[in-house]
Amino acid sequence: MTTGTRALAPLTRPARLRPGARVAVVAPSGPVPEERLESGLDILRGWDLDPVVAPHVLDRHPRFDYLAGTDEARARDLQDAWCDPSVSAVLCARGGYGAQRMADLLDWTVMRAAGPKVFVGYSDITALHEAFAVRMGLATLHGPMTAAVTFLKDAGTQESLRATLFEPESVRTLALDTARTLVPGRAAGVTLGGCVSLLAAELGTPHARPSAAGGLLLIEDVGEEPYRLDRILTQLLRSGWLDGVAGIALGSWERCGPYEEVRAVLLERLGTLGVPVVEELGFGHADTAPTMPLGVPAVLEAAPGEGRATLILDVPALT
């Protein structure tokens, strides 16, 4: 079956990075370990990038130890970095929790006027991916964060991001060897998504995306037991947010329980939509996490049986 007749418009793609480009590292969510940050900066320098660390990246909130500084300071760091004309990309240092608390403190009109730039992060940063899509019409990268353990230790994760940033035409086919069909079919649409618990938490907020209709939804999560994933997916289904989705690509489900139990929930909740579903593409909270562009037109191939299961971009992630 082929789906995807209701089009979700592609978003504006920012320019690829060039050697010597200045990139800003910000901390919109949780506190950042300094040693891990320094190791991540060394990797970026090894790519011939010029990373600059925002002033409040290593801050700690005076009251809540799960936040990297105050909401106002985290928002100011992101906005100042984005509006700095010398900065070509803004990379998140880590996820955790806190992006939703500061998203509405950003002046999106001023940031939109600063023009498109590369934005990279995942996990809690899903809230900002959605904000960039809705408020700025900008394609972003669901990719590893500068102080994340996977980025520091896994060469495949590093190379996927590096290639996407510098040679985006070389990473048009997105799938690990583990990828396989959960529900067969073929679908065309524009990619969106991220951490599924954050997508559910965005429902009802003032600037949330109204639905995933016509899109290729990429979802993953960490630390959510099967019954909680059931609740999250059920909320998305009951709200109508998944009505008209063209296809679904599933990433990693680290610490979400035995995968066969997780898989059963995913199949039972998503299989009723009548659209192609591909599992184990690997993006997200995994030992190897490929960078996934959001806001880019693509085709999801979910061949029956042991056939091919891939996500293929129509165009490179960056121009």
Helix content: 25-40%
Provide the succession of SSEs: EEHEHEHHEHEHHEEEHEHEHEEEE
| Low-pLDDT runs | 1-5
Output the structural class. alpha/beta
Strand fraction equals 15-25%
Largest sheet: 9 strands, mixed
Number of strands: 15
What is the terminal-to-terminal distance? 32 Å
Coarse shape: globular
Number of helices: 10
* Rounded Rg: 18 Å
Tell me, rounded to a whole number, the average pLDDT. Answer: 95
Structure notes:
The protein has 319 residues and is an alpha/beta fold. It has helices at 34-46, 71-83, 99-103, 108-113, 126-136, 149-153, 155-166, 196-202, 226-238, 259-270; strands at residues 2-3, 22-26, 50-53, 89-92, 118-121, 140-142, 173-174, 180-183, 185-195, 215-222, 247-254, 277-279, 292-294, 297-302, 309-313. The strands form two sheets. Strands 1, 7, 8, 9, 10, 11, 12, 14 and 15 form a nine-stranded mixed sheet that branches. Strands 3-2-4-5-6-13 form a six-stranded mixed sheet, with helices on both faces. Helix 5 (126-136) links the parallel strand 5 and strand 6. The longest helix has 13 residues, at 34-46.
